[in-house]
Amino acid sequence: MERDISILKENILFKDLTAEQIRKVLGISRKVVFSENETIMKEGEVGDTLYMMLEGTVEVAKKLVINGMSDQVTGKDKVFTKLSAGQHAMFGEIALLEEHERTATVKAVTDCVLYEIGKDDFLKLAEEDYELGYKILLNLVRVVSSTLRKTLEDTIKLTTVLSIVLEEL
Amino acid sequence: MERDISILKENILFKDLTAEQIRKVLGISRKVVFSENETIMKEGEVGDTLYMMLEGTVEVAKKLVINGMSDQVTGKDKVFTKLSAGQHAMFGEIALLEEHERTATVKAVTDCVLYEIGKDDFLKLAEEDYELGYKILLNLVRVVSSTLRKTLEDTIKLTTVLSIVLEEL
After folding, report:
1. Quick one: average pLDDT of A58-70?
2. B167:A72 CB<8 A
3. d(CA A112, nearest CA chain B) in Å
């Protein structure tokens, strides 16, 4: 447990939390193991769990085009990112707030050990300890805001490329 | 004040807050007035305030292409949305968490009355009253998550269109 805390305290979700507060969150978490090549979450499926990496590497894949709309690009319609425990990575964070379809598929590249937190358990803990709930939400909302800003920049770049291509036609 | 509370309690930021809690938040807010055609915030400028609409209508404009990259589309590079007090609209919510460049320009279409909340005042209040801080953050993060999901869908649509156009070349 103490070894896990020393790794997880570097996770952005736990920024500004005391060891005692981290211990409380781990108390509502499950330590889960996935084997090499196992799928941890699947894009489009509803989920309500967040994952923090303790050991291993995962691959994140996202659909880039609407299925069936563009058959010729099949096989190119995924983007891959690798996340590793060494980066103190986390994923599935939107699910901690709202049960919703996963926006990406995550697969174990190596054997992986993760801590899994469920939405209902988190919300219950937060309502018992508002200070802890507030601190975690503040960390979480900053991650989500930062992802939103990057995604907004992507749409501007895509629209720019599209407008240049359309002018060439 | 009571009339303002009866309007603002419909705002998503105040969901599940008691009248007493709303009053506390208004205590750290400033009631501000903008005249027709006045700019409330400008895309690209750094800001640290959130706005909740009490009266009037605003227009939201966003750059859609990178400046200078595509001269021929000048004039088409904005998208407009109108928000009104009747919709209990709010904007600038990311700024409540992190001082950052505004992602859109907002202009008053009619004379407007708004409540403005500053980041530092909000964070101070939240640390004095974690229950209130937690409830507001939970509402805020759900708004930001929902915007993120819509923006992710936009990038998928844009990539699909782009891949179809590129196949035609």
Report:
1. 75
2. yes
3. 27
- How far apart, in whole angstroms, are the C-alpha atoms of residue A96 and residue A49? 6
Q: Which helix (H) or strand (E) holds A90?
A: strand A90-91
* CB within 8 Å: B145 and A72: no
Contact predicate A124/A48, CB 8 Å: no
Summarised one tens digit per residue, pLDDT across range B124-167 is 999 999 999 999 999 999 999 999 989 988 888 888 888 888 88
Domain residue spans in chain B?
A: 2-168
Residue A133 or A4, more confident:
A133
A46-47/B46-47 β-pairing: unpaired
Chain B touched by A125 (CB under 8 Å): no
CATH placement of domain A2-168: 2.60.120.10
CA atoms B159, B164, B167, B169: torsion sign: negative
Under an 8 A CB cutoff, do A94 and B149 touch?
yes
Half-sphere exposure of B98 (CA within 13 A, CB side): 18
In this structure, are residues B112 and A163 in contact, taking their beta carbons and an 8 Å threshold? no
